[in-house]
Specification:
binds zinc ion, three-stranded mixed β-sheet, HSP40/DNAj peptide-binding domain, 10 helices, about 400 residues, 15 strands, four-stranded mixed β-sheet, about 25% helix
Amino acid sequence: MSKRDYYEVLGVDKSASAEDIKKAYRKKAIQFHPDKNPGDKTAEEKFKEAAEAYDVLSDSNKKARYDQFGHAGVDNMGAGGAGGFGGGFTMDDIFSRFGDIFGGAFGGAFGGSPFGGFGGSSGSRRGVRRGSDIRIRVKLTLEEIAHGADKVIKINKLKACPDCHGKGAVSESDMKTCPTCNGTGVFTRVTHTFLGQMQSSSPCPACNGEGKVITKPCKTCNGEGVVKGAEEISFSIPKGVEGGMQLTISGKGNAPKRGGVNGNLLVVIEEEPHPELQRDGNDLIYSLYVTFVQAALGDDVEVPTVDGKVRIKIDPGTQSGRMLRLRGKGLPEVNGYGTGDLLVFVQVWTPAKLSKDEKDLLSKLRDSTNFKPNPSKEDRNFFDRMKKMFSQ
Ligand SMILES: [Zn+2]
Ligand SMILES: [Zn+2]
């Protein structure tokens, strides 16, 4: 791929001063800044191309070589050091090396400024104007947590105005170059001190750093660029989430006033209590009540799981408090592999009301040797294990 001439890239001629080159680069960097051209690959390439041109033309040594030999004179410079870009700039290189040159028009310098609107979130790109986040709560059943859930939720939010596409003015002719900053978006103040002139820049207050002011605001949004409206948003909740977790659906929050990046939709998970199962991490716990007769003679019984009912066998002579572990019948790990277990605690139900006949029958068994408690070591230890489990 043939490279464009660096002077052409910045739109300056060979006699341009260092200051002119810097100004020209600043203009290009702002024009093609990713915050102004979200998702635009061509703009990103131009943004990188301008940085590469500026890297060479702002360095007297590289510039001299470039002037003499063209691209061949500088292409391999600095690939191994000297801060060169080698195979090209990454966006982060550009922001960290040259951000202070064009950053004034963007958020970097805007944090907490009275001009507002430029996202304060450190995660956002160099403080591009960003809409606010919306936080919603979503209640999930254990079954949904076990299998993951697709949700479609209608939320009220600020959306980009459909008539002006978020610009605040319907057409370019309804905007004019800001007279305060002459379209640079920057308000520069020069102060004279003992040390000479001190220059400080801040975003132009008249145009909020945009370089343009609206002469005829869009009627639909009064020039705000946003309108209130409902939007149906679909998103998937992964398996295994827990109450209190927060999912971020990026770009589904409020639109910012007059262009920029949407805020995020934050989905806070809540768990709906299950009528029969309780959760302990990824394990589920079920208290299974059986009759004394079932425990003594054994039986097949149904237990609930997050995948419907399953039948399990109760062995003859099962003690109250015995735990049966159904492997893999718990909840999946949220960000990994493996699934918890379903722990079934057997509870022998002791009848509280008895008829005369029942009392007579039981009385006959009162002195039976087999009815005398004779817990095994395992049965005794079980209570220790349970105590440990629940005291944690
Ligand atoms: Zn509008
Ligand atoms: Zn201005």
